[in-house]
Amino acid sequence: MQLPYRFNNDLKFGKAENPNFEVGMKLLKLLLGLLLCTALIYLGNTRLGSLPPIMKFVDPYHGFWQNAVLKDHQSVDNFTFGQLSNESHVVMDDRGVPHIFASNNHDLYFLQGYLTARDRLWQMEFQTHAAAGRISEIVGKKALAFDLEQRRIGMVWAAERAMEMMKEDSLCMEELTAYADGINTYIRSLQPEDYPLEYKLLNYAPEEWTVLKSALLLKYMAKMLNDTERDRPNTEALKLLGAEMFFKLFPDQQYLDDPIVPGFEPDTSGFASETETVGMATESDWEMTSIQPHFVGSNNWAVSGNRTETGSPILCNDPHLKLSLPSIWYEIQLHAPNINCYGVSLPGSPGITIGFNDSIAWGVTNAGRDVKDYYTIRFDDEKTHTYHIGDREYTAEPRIETLKVRGQADVIDTVLYTAYGPIAYTNKETGENLALRWFAHDPSDELMCFYELNRAKNYNDYEKALSHYSCPGQNFVFADAHNDIAIWQQGKFKIKPKNYGRFVLNGNEMGHLNERFIPQEQNPHMHNPERGFVSSANQPATDSEYPYYYSGVYEEFRNRTINRFLRSDSSVSVQDMMDLQLSNYNLLAEEALPLMLALLDTSEFQYKEYETLAWNELQGWDYRNDKGLIAPTVFEIWWDEFNNLVWDEFNSKDWDQDKYYRDSWMELSETGKAKVDMRDPRYVYPMAKVTLDLLKNDPENIIFDHHSSNNSREDAKQMIHDSFYWTAMKFGDIIKYKFNRPHWGHYQGTRIQHLARLDALSSKKLFVGGNENAPNATTSTHGPSWRMIVQLSENGPTAYGVIPGGQSGNPGSPLYRSSLQKWADGEYNQLHLLHSADEVEEGWHTLTFKPTAE
Fold this sequence. Notes:
- By secondary structure, the chain is of the alpha+beta class.
- 32% of the residues lie in helices and 16% in strands.
- The strands form 6 sheets. The chain has an 11-stranded mixed sheet. Strands 4, 5, 22, 24, 25, 26 and 27 form a 7-stranded antiparallel sheet that branches.
């Protein structure tokens, strides 16, 4: 039978030769087009779930197509704004980094606001909506629980109190106001077709920027960096385990190895540390959210010129945060009278947060100190909200929070503010409440710290700038062109007795409101030490000579790897510092693996093929979590499986009374059951040293007894054997069912997600190395959000840096991910600190901003 038509491969679209077929196809296309048009007209302005109106979104003149049109910034090079007082110039380099040259502070920060909004408007607004508890306005009720928590912990209240202090500082208010004016000038220039893609996708419009939003952003960062408190789970664990076992499994980490400032013993005359005991709360089961599993950390260090090849000091910083697209940082240079500074800013906040100028460089890491305390409050009268602290009666002040929820009625929540702070959590069964005392709630002016650092010339300027900084506690590293290096742990830290703040406190006791704080000069710091370097990687700040008690969550491995290198090499180069930032050396593996292998009996292998393969991979491994190696995959699986077995008791919220009463290693509640929200040691970051200590020194400890085995008593050797069997099972599955890709870079699966968790706008999985216990602390979701290395000299700085993303927040722009591959490959961009707008290289261009003619 002859076919009625055939496709001609030489024709562009395989056009049919049969004319009847062509007519039929045209009619079919017309019919389908009419049906499609009818559907689009019907659905054009109708949302389907969380999707935008289809016709509006796909409109070629106003929809998402406009975001793929690369006007980027070359089409218009001259701007006129009535808010400017003088002509300014902005050099845009080939990576989209603006170098702003202005004649005064107002114009400088106006242009910073304008340019940052042009590149990152949606990100700025989304993050401040998140800080304020307003995400439900955009995405609906699925964000309601998050928004309620933001309201209940007092985020907006904290920003309002910060503004009280900022308003007293004319320089600060000029900076904030000019920055907000620049953002709003950009917003007012937009038509709907110009909106960033996410506004179109989520079907809403940008709103006016306010100075309060900049304050909110700073509190948002404070929350991110202070979100590791353990008061509530610690309280439950202490009651359940008893003091002896609790402090064995959850020891105070104040005095770990290799502190930031060893031997620091300030004069504490008049500020002696307190030693009295404190009252702990007795109730439990508060309505609460889960604790974040990752500690937010960073590395920084500075090496004296006496220890470098060129004789000039080198400063390095890489803050480890949750990786996101757009990047959390925005590169920029600010040049005006008395300032010429380059670095990264937080989109939504004026100035530069981490960076350098002609004279100094600075960087920050998280101090990890606990600056949140919880107090139980029981109201005498639920209607009047009266309560007592000692003999004194107080009345909580209600703050009405109206949450607008997209697609449904507003939700009204009343947050009660006590003498300690807001009631953040409530036990619905007992009527007891938890009030949050957080130092970020206090009036403060952190913005002024960075204003002065941007302009600092020497160590004295650096010390003065830090006096403005309160919360969250940070380790500020410093170097200058005169070969001074320093580090200072700065923040507002309470003088308190031992264990204060590790547990929920009894809010009815007198004395909690009588707070005293450690003076700035007694905060741990070091200036030009004999060893020739200063460093921090989130380890404790001091050793036992420091007279003040503090608690927190601290790193135990990265810092020792970094210090080991800095002590070992008497003369370092910029390349050495790059290699150290990129080091995948896993000190936990170095200390754990030999212990584990020593207890592993290879003659007892049960899943012999893959146990042997896994065992072979570990032989001769140099403890580096390099992306192309298989050994780190085996070790990480084994370490996880071993910890799963060792700490299996913590995997259940219902405890076996008979078994653990019989073993006599933990105290139980009267019912023998406990519903607790507590973390086992492997998730109280890092706490791996607890496991290592038990493995090395107490292998018969009852903790190695497997919770689910009823007829035997296991020890560490049995745990090692059993966990290696399960490791081999998983390892075999990877080889058999996952395309034989057991290499660490595949197994770790680092992926940078879009802020709104939109997969299409996120990165693919990156083939990279690293580990949270290595200097290159890259995990599946977290890692170095900015790598910076600066060498300072009398002739000016030489600097390198890279962010895991790009300058633009527009997914349709080539600048959205322009540095992502460089970051993944361990490469750096040279950072150009220009001295005039005439320093334009090939591929760069200049924007001119003029005031409106009178």
